[in-house]
């Protein structure tokens, strides 16, 4: 999900311009340069202090957000962030995370309405809860299923969706977790233009997909927000069934593998991810595996451009700390989609690559504002603003 923190970004641009001006002059005094850099860091800190409040175990921040994509126009809104820490963090376990609530309210110039709330809680060192509620109304593009349709063949339509997701995990020990996932999405579509999106497409009619299933995680990461060492292995299956109230019968399977390595004194981090998704049955088009967006295969201009019953992608990223709260990153990825889980999945592999900048929003937590430029197949490209790392 893209995020644009206006005040932060202006400060970042100003600081880079100041720094480049300093480095470009052969007569710059070292003490003057250091004073200038200190002034930059103090200025940004003061700006951040205006948007955040901390008292005891409670912290609060409210950030303006802005986004742009051609199909939805300019999106503006607000995102408050609430964080609650327990009195005793030692007994919470190795992978403790404070309770965090992040609502967002945004509107776009082309009529998109987005209201969402993310909730994360770690209870008594044993249970973790991750949940999201989301209401979304916007105009979208139908690219087809499988290879994307040519531009003149694509349909546009308005959609209204309500989404709820829950993951409840119980840790068996410090690194092994078992639990359950629940997923529900209601969708209706209207004002369709073009003939490619029609009643032959599963999910064209109004309906809801509702499913539950098991999940297992093996997690040795040293930090869940910004890992520098360790691994993550996550396996899950969700079964959507009419007995649960779903309008669709299908199954969804996911495998997510990640590895993090410190290459140089916590300054240079190598992150690698591999993902495999598969669906069986009659899944609606909006629940098919896909890649693109700010987290997987950055450089593809629309997250629904490549969608089919099966997909895989793998990506690697180098994260380099530069100075103070500033960092940079470079990434590359490959992936593909296929109707069947066979050799066709490895034909016509898609490749993406790109680079980006990072700014650490909070002094004590590695929560980064992220700006990435990605380049994809056939001249495709995309620009992303987001919070937290892609993986």
From TrEMBL:
Keywords: Membrane, Signal
Keyword Signal applies: yes
Domain of life: Bacteria
Localization per record: Membrane
Signal peptide, first to last residue: 1-21
Pfam families: Omp85
InterPro entries assigned: Bac_surfAg_D15
Residue span(s) of domain Bacterial surface antigen (D15): 213-338
The UniProt record lists the keyword Membrane: yes
GO cellular component, one term: outer membrane
Protein name, entry field: Outer membrane protein assembly factor BamA
Provenance organism: Aureibacter tunicatorum
Organism ancestry: Bacteria, Pseudomonadati, Bacteroidota, Cytophagia, Cytophagales
């Amino acid at each position: 999900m893209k995020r644009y923190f206006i005040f932060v970004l202006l400060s970042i641009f100003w600081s880079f311009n100041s720094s480049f001006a300093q480095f470009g002059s052969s007569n710059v005094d070292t003490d003057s340069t250091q004073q200038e850099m200190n002034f930059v860091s103090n200025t940004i800190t003061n700006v951040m202090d205006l948007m955040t409040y901390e008292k005891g175990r409670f912290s609060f921040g409210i950030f303006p957000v802005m986004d742009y994509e051609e199909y939805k126009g300019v999106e503006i809104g607000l995102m408050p962030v609430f964080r609650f820490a327990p009195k005793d963090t030692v007994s919470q376990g190795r992978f403790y995370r404070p309770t965090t609530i992040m609502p967002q309210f945004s509107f776009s110039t082309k009529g998109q309405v987005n209201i969402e709330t993310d909730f994360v809680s770690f209870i008594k060192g044993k249970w973790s809860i991750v949940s999201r509620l989301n209401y979304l109304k916007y105009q979208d593009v139908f690219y087809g299923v499988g290879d994307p349709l040519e531009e003149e063949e694509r349909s546009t339509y308005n959609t209204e969706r309500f989404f709820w997701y829950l993951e409840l995990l119980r840790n068996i020990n410090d690194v092994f977790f078992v639990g359950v996932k629940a997923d529900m999405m209601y969708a209706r579509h209207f004002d369709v233009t073009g003939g490619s999106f029609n009643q032959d497409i599963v999910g064209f009619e109004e309906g809801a997909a509702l499913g539950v299933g098991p999940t297992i995680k093996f997690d040795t990461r040293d930090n869940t927000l910004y890992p520098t060492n360790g691994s993550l292995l996550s396996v899950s299956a969700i079964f959507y069934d009419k007995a649960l109230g779903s309008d669709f019968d299908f199954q969804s399977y996911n495998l997510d593998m990640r590895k993090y390595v410190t290459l140089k004194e916590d300054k240079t981090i190598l992150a690698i991810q591999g993902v495999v998704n598969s669906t069986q049955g009659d899944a609606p088009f909006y629940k098919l595996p896909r890649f693109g967006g700010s987290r997987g295969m950055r450089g593809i201009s629309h997250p629904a451009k490549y969608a089919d019953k099966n997909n895989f992608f793998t990506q690697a990223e180098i994260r380099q700390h530069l100075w103070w709260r500033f960092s940079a990153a470079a990434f590359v990825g490959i992936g593909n989609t296929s109707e069947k889980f066979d050799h066709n999945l490895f034909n016509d592999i898609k490749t993406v690559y790109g680079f980006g900048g990072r700014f650490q929003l909070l002094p004590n937590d590695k929560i980064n504002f992220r700006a990435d430029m990605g380049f994809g197949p056939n001249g495709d490209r995309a620009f992303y603003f987001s919070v937290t790392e892609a993986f």
